[in-house]
């Protein structure tokens, strides 16, 4: 049985399903490797998060009004394209981003960082179902989730890596702040940021980058992520899950707001295009 989801518009980039009363599943499918483009983030992922939060809040309010002390459970699962077993997300859609200079100026502060902050402080538990490789910005998005379940790599390789060091790209303030918030061991920070190490699933679990690894394909990873989501969905009932995270990750939230764009007419119009 599934439950209806009210999407603001049909999107080929993101779908949301509602398989149980307490679970929402957001699937990214911008190509098989779920690249994060301006359109993907601002026009598809952001509205999809709105849908999930609105649906959950409506059930939570109804439970409160009915004095149902167990009502208002909720968890969000984010998974890569379910038609393949190779990628969760391969990071930014780099070629398209750099093709429009004004959009490039706006991309981090006005498109990416709001999504990262949104997931980092989402009001219900979030689980990344990492069904394959997860690189660069895809890894940062997964780290913003509260829990991570990853394919164990036994069927095919699955790497976890921040590879910017290998192609000479500096990190935005938000990326470094999220890494510091979620990975506290400076030796692991060095391995991720300065060495660009490709973590196997077993290494990722041993260092705390993922909570569980699962043998099997995308559906096996998703099934375990859903089971984990169900097990923690009751934490949403009191309503404080997102509020506590706002303080827990305050440094990362404030740092992401300091990725500043110098204003000009072109960048202002590009920001409006991403917003409207």
TrEMBL record:
Pfam families hit by this protein: ECH_1 (PF00378)
Cellular component GO terms, alphabetical:
peroxisome
Task: Write out the GO MF terms.
Answer: delta(3)-delta(2)-enoyl-CoA isomerase activity
Instruction: Indicate the secretion signal residues.
Output: none
Q: Which GO terms describe its biological process?
A: fatty acid beta-oxidation
State which residue ranges cross the membrane: none
Q: Which InterPro entries did the record assign?
A: ClpP/crotonase-like_dom_sf (IPR029045), Enoyl-CoA_hyd/isom_CS (IPR018376), Enoyl-CoA_hydra/iso (IPR001753)
Which protein family is named in the record? Belongs to the enoyl-CoA hydratase/isomerase family.
- Which protein is depicted? ClpP/crotonase
Instruction: Classify the source by domain of life.
Output: Eukaryota
Which CDD domains does the record associate with it? Answer: crotonase-like
> What's the source species' lineage?
Eukaryota, Fungi, Dikarya, Basidiomycota, Agaricomycotina
Species of origin reads: Wolfiporia cocos (strain MD-104) (Brown rot fungus)
């Amino acid at each position: 049985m599934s439950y209806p989801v009210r999407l603001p518009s049909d999107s080929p980039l993101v779908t949301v399903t509602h398989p149980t009363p307490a679970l929402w599943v957001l699937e990214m499918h911008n190509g098989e490797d779920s690249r994060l483009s301006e359109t993907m983030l601002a026009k598809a992922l952001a509205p999809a998060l709105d849908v999930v939060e609105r649906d959950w809040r409506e059930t939570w309010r109804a439970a409160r009004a009915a004095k149902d002390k167990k009502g208002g459970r909720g968890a969000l699962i984010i998974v890569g394209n379910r038609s393949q077993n190779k990628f969760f997300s391969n990071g930014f859609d780099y070629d398209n981003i750099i093709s429009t200079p004004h959009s490039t100026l706006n991309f981090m502060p006005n498109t990416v960082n709001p999504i990262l902050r949104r997931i980092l402080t989402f009001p219900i538990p979030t689980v990344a179902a990492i069904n394959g490789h997860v690189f660069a910005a895809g890894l940062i998005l997964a780290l913003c989730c509260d829990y991570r379940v990853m394919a164990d790599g036994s069927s095919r390789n699955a790497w976890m890596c921040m590879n910017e060091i290998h192609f000479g790209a500096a990190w935005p303030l938000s990326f470094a702040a999220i890494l510091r918030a979620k990975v506290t061991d400076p030796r692991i920070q060095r391995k991720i940021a300065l060495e660009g190490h490709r973590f196997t699933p077993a290494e990722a679990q041993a260092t705390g980058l993922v909570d569980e690894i699962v043998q099997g394909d995308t559906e096996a990873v998703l099934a375990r992520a859903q089971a984990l989501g169900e097990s923690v969905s009751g934490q949403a009932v009191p309503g404080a899950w997102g509020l506590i995270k706002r303080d827990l990750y305050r440094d990362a939230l404030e740092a992401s707001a300091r990725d500043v764009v110098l204003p000009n007419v072109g960048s202002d119009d590009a920001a409006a295009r991403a917003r409207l």
